[in-house]
Amino acid sequence: MALDLKKFFISNQHCNKIISDDYMFIEFNCPIEMENFKLWTEIPFLAYIVSGRKDWTTLNKTYCLKEGDAVFVRKGVFKTKQYFEENYCSLLFFITDDFIRRFCKEHHEALPKTSADFLENQIYKINVNDPLSSLFLTVFNYLKAGKEIPKGLVEMKFKELLFNITIDPLNRELVALFNSIQQVEKTNLNDVMIKNFQSDLTLEEYARLCGRSLSTFKRDFQNHFKETPGKWLNNKRLEYAKMLLQNQDLNINDVCWESGFKNTSHFNSAFKNKYKLPPNQFRKEHYNL
């Protein structure tokens, strides 16, 4: 089961944090028991690595992040793997789509005009220059001090972060994403589902990921995909499992978990119902593995 980051950090008493309606600052020191984890977030966030190393993996790419690196993570599901040669500490800046929209509308004349050719990624590497690195560390020192920070100062630092990122030409892919968020009031349901169908989220969690109530999510889903979420998810996961069976490095349990099923008996039954053969036999007859 994927860990809900928002709930985890709100309830976690062992990390420094500042929480408001549209943003959340977190200083996170990752414990050893979280070496490998599947996570999901309904709120986009910036991550800056203060120390240590960690791999962040999406459906189609792995990002190896080390001290001084930064990324912007879109809402969705991803995996992390930690290395324990060094202590891992990161700063996380959760920023709602509404905050990004307001920033873009207020400062649209100053933002670079970019094309929308870079919108498929879930994770965007950020070029960290000296001013941006100093700003990250300033915020880190605020959190370490443990004193209450005025709301106005927090919002100013958020906007300063976004300004430093958006005026750097090397971050044009992320600027294109920000511009696209500004232009769309509702989260793109098709985009979210295609990128995250293989994750074992509940329908309520998918609804939150899409920025909708459960009832609105079901209605919009039916209108767009012309079938119920449950049926669509089952078919997409089976199609993905069929593709994964070609990978001889994955056993049937691996294929089951990677495609989003929670137990192998249900997976085997659903696969046989759709493809007329259980996964093991299908692999032998169709892929000679």
TrEMBL record:
<dbReference type="InterPro" id="IPR018062">
    <property type="entry name" value="HTH_AraC-typ_CS"/>
</dbReference>
<dbReference type="GO" id="GO:0043565">
    <property type="term" value="F:sequence-specific DNA binding"/>
</dbReference>
<dbReference type="GO" id="GO:0003700">
    <property type="term" value="F:DNA-binding transcription factor activity"/>
</dbReference>
<dbReference type="InterPro" id="IPR054015">
    <property type="entry name" value="ExsA-like_N"/>
</dbReference>
<dbReference type="Pfam" id="PF22200">
    <property type="entry name" value="ExsA_N"/>
</dbReference>
<keyword id="KW-0238">DNA-binding</keyword>
<dbReference type="InterPro" id="IPR009057">
    <property type="entry name" value="Homeodomain-like_sf"/>
</dbReference>
<protein>
    <submittedName>
        <fullName>Helix-turn-helix protein</fullName>
    </submittedName>
</protein>
<dbReference type="InterPro" id="IPR018060">
    <property type="entry name" value="HTH_AraC"/>
</dbReference>
<dbReference type="Pfam" id="PF12833">
    <property type="entry name" value="HTH_18"/>
</dbReference>
<keyword id="KW-0805">Transcription regulation</keyword>
<feature type="domain" description="HTH araC/xylS-type">
    <location>
        <begin position="187"/>
        <end position="285"/>
    </location>
</feature>
<keyword id="KW-0804">Transcription</keyword>
